[in-house]
Amino acid sequence: MAEIRPPTAGEMPEVARQAARQLGLSPSMFQGMQPEWALCAFEDGRVVTTYAYWPLQIRFNGPPAKISGVTWVSTHPAYRRRGNLRTITRQHFEQLHEEGETALAGLHPAWMGIYQRYGYGTVNIRHGYRIAPRDIVFAHPVEAPGQLREVDLGEEFGLLVDVYRRFREQRNGLVHRGRAMWDAGPLSGSPPGHQDLVIAYEEDDEPLGYVVYHHGPGLARDGAGVGQYLNVMDYFAITPAAHHALWGMLAAYDNVGEIRWNNAPADDPLPNMIVEPRLLNTHTRDGIMARLVTVEDAMTQRPYPELASLRFELRDEFCEWNDGRWLLDTDTEGSAMTRIDGENVDITLTADTLASMAFGRISASDAARAGLLEVHDDRALARWDSALRTKYVPYEAEHTW
User: Fold this and answer.
1) What are the pLDDT digits (tens) for 216-242?
2) Other Cβ atoms closer than 10 A to 26
3) Beta-sheet strands, E only, within 155-298
4) How far apart are CA 150 and CA 94, in angstroms?
């Protein structure tokens, strides 16, 4: 029987070493974690399952909400299929629920099926582009009266933080970045032989957008042509002029055969800006997953656009304190959750589906068409769709937790 507990400070190097080995990642990525933010399984004094969580904040349809950012999840191959991860996850959720300060958990899944069984639902979709610079031709060019300039990160790191915070203000899914997240993510450096650049767009000395990227050799080609590619590491623009100026600058790289951006938001304007959006070669993949650990606290943290009464049955055996029938009363000024066990409800659903709906990735009608919920009142779906809509589609831009 494994012992589940936080590691000691002296055990943390071994926890990090085991996580790096099992996840196939560089040990340099496993730094800064505090012992009190970890739960591990030990057998005969040896760490066999690692699990940790960063105390983060995420934008939840505008306002910030605390979220436990789960990471370092791994099990030694000789100790798998023993239920250690399930036991640890259960203990972590119980701890969050009892403390009552953090109602959400989130993670980047290696495999979605692992975490759906614990009630996690996918809350955003990433878009990726592969486009030749010469194919970025604007359908309706927008005048950009400002100027582009290179940013000196040693002196002007705050410029990036300012733009990111302003973009994030009313968004849905973006995490509050600490300096370590910047350094391990968009500012982590480029492959050997590539050049790093940060370019900002400004009007009257006000930064309105920036792009972090690197470019250099490595583009495989069958025949003649340039052999360089350009990889966008981070991109945020606040105005149409900033979008046009920054993408116009990237489009002018004649020595680059392909521009790559692997983390565009689902509502990114670039496909609507260019003449031939199919030349973006857009591909999609799932992003982060979230868990409503304490549903009544989680659902009342996000704003709602209108007054509505939403009645539902939540089936949640993993977090039984959530299991039952609920009334969510929404309003533009706030919301409230009340237990209504024994009363009629509009729909019945599971925790993973509710998480996806709460963040606005799917609507109740989407979920019903996919068979993800049971409908008891067909007329209620339109009310659910309208009340749970978000100002922006969910978007996350991190790779570091």
Assistant:
1) 999 987 666 789 999 999 999 999 999
2) 8
3) 195-203, 206-217, 228-237, 258-264, 283-286, 289-292
4) 48
Using alpha carbons, select from 281, 280, 228 the residue that is nearest to residue 257: 228
CATH no., domain 294-387: 3.30.1050.10
> Looking at residue 306, what is its pLDDT?
97
Q: Please, where in the chain does CATH 3.30.1050.10 lie? A: 294-387
pLDDT tens readout for residues 276-304: 999 999 999 999 999 999 999 999 999 99
Give the whole-angstrom CA distance, residue 238 versus residue 235. Answer: 10
Least Cα distance to 354 among 111, 126, 103 occurs for 103
Q: Under CATH, what is the fold of the domain 126-286?
A: Aminopeptidase (3.40.630)
Q: Give me the CATH code for the 3-102 domain, please.
A: 3.40.630.30
Half-sphere exposure (Cβ direction) of 45: Cα atoms closer than 13 Å:
1
Please compute the mean of the pLDDT values over residues 139-143 and round it to a whole number: 97
One DSSP character per residue, 202-225 reads EETTEEEEEEEEEEEE----SSSS
pTM of the full structure = 0.94
Residues of the chain with CATH 3.40.630.30: 3-102, 126-286
